[in-house]
Amino acid sequence: MRAEAQSQPKRARDLGIPFEGTPGKYNAITDVAGVLVGYKTLISGQGKLVVGKGPVRTGITAILPKGFTNDTVAAAYFVLNGDGEMTGLASVEDYGYYYGPLGITNTNSVGVVRDAIGAWNIKHFSTGNADDFAFGLPVVAETFDGGLNDIDGLHVSKQDVWDALDSASTGQIKEGNVGGGTGMRLFHFKGGTGTSSRVINVKGKDYTVGVLVQANFGNREDLMVAGVPVGREIRDLEPIYNQQKDGSIIVIIATDAPLLPSQLKQLAKRATIGIARTGGFGYNSSGDIFFAFSTRTGKLDKNGLESWSAIPKDDMNALYKAVALATEEAIINTLVAAKTMTGINGNTVFELPRDRLMEVMKKYRH
């Protein structure tokens, strides 16, 4: 059976965990106008692993930067740790922009997701001309869910990707065991998908920065929540399976602030700080890849020249801080939302218990 994740649970702020900064209305990447998010969550089977049959614990997360259009966005990326994959980056590096949806899935499904996004682009945006390039160079990223999921069974299909794309919406979005994050673990607790946003003011104008993460990294003893060493206080509930290597994290950063591609690369770098605030160290085998885009782009004038409006680099500190803070909160939102999951061969990853989390926070006077 294929099922969508359960309804959205309480989030970290709802528990009283103190985070710095002002979030947007939904405290999500969808607070950036035009950004849509869709999921397809695949959960089926139980018991012994049978490759090709299951158990299945995986999915696809789709991000549409400018809704159901292929309008361009200014874009850039940063790789902290290259033990992972994000397609389409050579084009982004050269052109400084991107168009069409992005996808996040499991490691072995990057290819099918890329091809499915391209086919979806053709369906919606092709002009039918011989030189049509509606397929594009889709950006698709991954983290490894093979501890819980029949990852070699290649269960993500083209239709699954199209379902995620077609269901994309704005507003409050699901977190935890959903979409591409379904089978992930985080600081040896259950991980997955999380999001957060910040509203900032630069020289009298308000802008929004939104972040979505697929989080699958970290050692238990390193976990920090709002400066509190939660991982050192909750030492039990270790996963029931042996995975020695660290996982990965993908961070997607969206903003409506007018920025050049070079400035967006600076934003992408600041995701590193947010990860560090939760106890991430970029350990070996963790693929830590971050993609940033602005919904404001350059425009061609009547002379065929492209002109850009951009916030001066000297005024970008508020944006840097917003990325770091939203990344931090998105990761903790993932932990709060994710639920205990059992997958292949009885392998189990336990959720972070909220009551014990708050006991630790109170112990440290939060």
Characterize this entry briefly:
This protein is of the alpha+beta class and about 375 residues long. The chain has helices at about 90-95, 110-125, 160-165, 230-235, 260-275, 315-335, 355-365; strands at about 35-45, 55-65, 70-80, 95-100, 100-105, 140-145, 185, 190, 190-200, 205-215, 250-255, 285-295, 300, 305, 340, 350.
Q: Notable features of this structure?
A:
single chain; 366 residues; alpha+beta; L-amino peptidase D-ALA esterase/amidase; four-stranded mixed sheet; 7 helices; 16 strands; 23% helix; 25% strand; disordered N terminus
CATH superfamily: L-amino peptidase D-ALA esterase/amidase
**Number of domain units:** 1
Percent helix: 10-25%
Mean pLDDT across all residues, rounded? 94
Give the N-to-C terminal Cα separation: 42 Å
What is the annotated CATH architecture?
Answer: 4-Layer Sandwich
What portion of residues belong to β-strands? Answer: 25-35%
Listing every helix as H and every strand as E from the N terminus to the C terminus, the arrangement reads EEEHEEHEHEEEEHEHEEEHEEH
Structural class: alpha+beta
Largest sheet, in brief, is: 6 strands, mixed
Taking all Cα atoms into account, the compactness measure Rg is: 20 Å
- Number of β-strand runs: 16
Instruction: Give the count of helical stretches.
Output: 7
Unreliable spans are: 1-8
The global form is globular
Question: CATH topology, which one?
Answer: L-amino peptidase D-ALA esterase/amidase
* CATH top level class name: Alpha Beta
